[in-house]
Structure formats: C-alpha cells, structure tokens
Design goal:
151 residues, alpha+beta, two-stranded antiparallel ribbon
C-alpha cells in the first residue's frame, strides 16, 4: 500500500514539475514575443522619423532664395509609364494610371538606365518603361530633371 502512495506522490510531484517547466516556457515565449513586438514598433517609429528627416532634407535642397528673401519651392512631379513619343526636346509618357504627361528634355536632364548608370536622352525610345522626376515651370509645363529607363 505504501508503494502505491509513494508512486502516486512521485507521479504528482513529476506532474507539478512538468507543469512548472511548461509554465516557464510559456512565460519565456511571452517575454520574447513582447520584446519582438516592442522592437518592431520602435523600428517602425524610427523609420517614420528617418522618412520625415529625408523628406525635410529633400525639400530643403530644392529651396532657393530670391533677392527679396522670400522662399521659392520648385514643385516636383514624379510619374512612371511607357514612352509614347520622344524627340530631342521632349518626351510623352502614358502613365500607369492612364494619364498622358509631356516633359521637356534639356542638357541638364540626367538619364540613366537599370543597365547603365549614365546615358543620354537619345537612349529614351518609344516603348521604354521610365520613371521620371520633373519640375513644373511657371507656364505649367514640366521639365524632366531625371529619367530612369527601367526597360
């Protein structure tokens, strides 16, 4: 009879130890998940802060001062699409949203492609898929600052 009680007592002790170990593992996993979530949240908040700083830096680089001291901000336009027409002074792009944008090309326009870091405007062909960054002129026309030929 004593053997049955000892066996039963040992069995209960083993079950308690097992429950203790399982509980510790669950608590440990909870702590790891909490650390991961907090780290991810901090990382996302930190990235948002970096994005805001980058936007502020980009905005400040396109600012200039006129003689009267008032700030002038050049309006930027960015679009992606396929070239439908191109000549030495302008290009027309049908954007991925279906709109048509025409941008003037000049000697300051920087052209590059995924295959070559530097190209000339002659590399832009009808049918090319492009990423274009433009500034808006006072007459509402666009002048291409950068053209990236994607394909």
């Amino acid at each position: 009879m004593k053997d049955k009680k000892n066996t039963k007592t040992k069995s209960v002790e083993l079950n308690q130890q097992l429950l203790s170990i399982v509980g510790s593992v669950i608590i440990g996993l909870g702590i790891i998940v909490a650390i991961f979530v907090l780290g991810w949240h901090y990382g996302a908040a930190n990235q948002t802060s970096k994005d805001k700083k980058a936007l502020a830096a980009a905005t400040s680089t396109i600012r200039s001062r006129n003689p009267l001291g008032a700030s002038i901000v050049a309006e930027r336009h960015v679009f992606v699409g396929d070239v439908t027409a191109v000549n030495a002074t302008s290009m027309t792009v049908k954007t991925t949203s279906g709109q048509t944008q025409t941008a003037q090309l000049n000697s300051k326009t920087i052209v590059s492609s995924t295959k070559s870091p530097t190209s000339s405007t002659s590399a832009i062909k009808v049918g090319s898929h492009v990423f274009v960054t433009c500034t808006q002129n006072s007459n509402k026309s666009l002048t291409a600052q950068r053209v990236l030929i994607i394909r």
